[in-house]
Amino acid sequence: MTEDRQISIALPTIRRLPMYVAVLEKALQDGQTHASSSQIAGALGLESIQVRKDLAAVGVVGQAGVGFPVGELIVAIEKSLGWDNASDAFVIGAGHLGTALAGYRGFARYGLNIVALFDSDPAKVGQTVHGKKILPMEKFADLAARLHVRIAILTVPAEAATESAALAAEAGIKALWNFTPTKLAPIDGVIVERVDLAASLAVLSSRLASLVGASGAARPQAADEPESEV
Amino acid sequence: MTEDRQISIALPTIRRLPMYVAVLEKALQDGQTHASSSQIAGALGLESIQVRKDLAAVGVVGQAGVGFPVGELIVAIEKSLGWDNASDAFVIGAGHLGTALAGYRGFARYGLNIVALFDSDPAKVGQTVHGKKILPMEKFADLAARLHVRIAILTVPAEAATESAALAAEAGIKALWNFTPTKLAPIDGVIVERVDLAASLAVLSSRLASLVGASGAARPQAADEPESEV
DNA sequence: TAGATTGTTAATCGATTAACAATC
DNA sequence: TAGATTGTTAATCGATTAACAATC
């Protein structure tokens, strides 16, 4: 049996693991069998000690004087992340963002397979985007159960987030990837991971503001060209 | 002159500030003039002491026995974030994600105004999405300079990320909001904030994997009972 | 005054970084 | 053997949490 103690890897470490996979795959393509912590760190702008600590957390041992086995490492990381066998997912909300995510081919790399989209708008239902059908919300629970879908990607408008999340939980969804600006209240038995654009933009704009503030007064931009209404 | 010491607010605090704004605006609509740290914390699932520490960082003082002044707080937070006067932004890459972001009306709330999109694909150039024009990359530098645009939103394919970032930096862009899966090398004088979907999905799927692993072999769960537990 | 709540100072916790002996 | 690199143990750093006197 495998060691199976993937629980309890520190969250910051888990967030860095995908970067390691990317770097290691490049190394693999270059024909490298081993990569040292300092090589990996260099490629990512990290410290080598942090790489060693992170890799220790996924349970791979390196070879002193040589480095870490690249192939083995990729497999171990993907196992830790649950990326070793693909998971099906439903998208709830076939708006701009939902259809964009449904069309993103890169998710396959992360073991995520978007099966279908759901929307409450009858005008959208029946359409096909990126080869995936938009289905009515009424069919969600039944299909989630029949197809054993455990992941839902939430891309509905902010006002509909809470209700959609409840419906998904009811339907047996175990993990919600929340792209809405709504912070959901905890739901028993459901993992919620939020992509918080406001938080990310807050970091960007506050740094920009302090940069501008440092170099002089904030100044209005020239009213010229298309100001374009939203 | 204003106090102007917005530098050095801790990053975790900055990430939480937008949530406070959301809660405070709701309080304002309910006619509240003041909100206590425990009220705010309760609405967000945080500890009151953390709220007080965060609000202290933006420089607003509360009133013992009463709470914090709601309106003043909103203004102060928005100032800290640079959300007090809107910034224009360009989108680079008019693919699914780029057009989705260009159509998201919620950004106005964060002082972000998407002016136009740019793409290197001649087939896309000339089209209009959500009332915004798709322009050729060749015009980027000139327009960025003329309109004093400092923010670019990067939604090109992974392979084009580095090149596009360099072009943006060349054109005087000061802040890059990077939605590509590529981790950019640091660029002198340019702030880069990345929306790392792989990192977010890693957290989601690893938690899901350990949840399934904990309850026995990886098995299609009964579409019934909550499996509970964090 | 009495109750509620702030803001400060100290304690705790967890992650990052440093140092270096062990090992290939 | 000599050089490179790991993994362990300890030190540092920063953020969160606790306790409580000050204050409205």
UniProtKB/TrEMBL annotation, chains A, B:
Q: Which domain of life is it from?
A: Bacteria
Q: Identify the Pfam families for this entry.
A: CoA_binding, Put_DNA-bind_N
Q: What is its main location?
A: cytoplasm
- One GO MF term: DNA-binding transcription factor activity
Name the DNA-binding stretches.
19-58
Entry keyword set: Cytoplasm, DNA-binding, NAD, Repressor, Transcription, Transcription regulation
GO biological process terms, alphabetically, are: negative regulation of DNA-templated transcription; response to redox state
Q: Give the residues the record marks as binding NAD(+).
A: 93-98
**Any single Gene Ontology cellular-component annotation:** cytoplasm
Where in this chain does the record put each CoA-binding domain? 83-183
Q: In the UniProt record, does the keyword tRNA-binding occur?
A: no
Subcellular compartments: Cytoplasm
Matching entries from SUPFAM superfamilies are given as: NAD(P)-binding Rossmann-fold domains (SSF51735), Winged helix' DNA-binding domain (SSF46785)
Please state which protein family the record places this protein in: Belongs to the transcriptional regulatory Rex family.
Quaternary structure note: Homodimer.
Q: What does this protein do?
A: Modulates transcription in response to changes in cellular NADH/NAD(+) redox state.
Protein name from the UniProt record: Redox-sensing transcriptional repressor Rex
Protein's organism: Anaerobaca lacustris
What would be the name of the gene that encodes this protein? rex
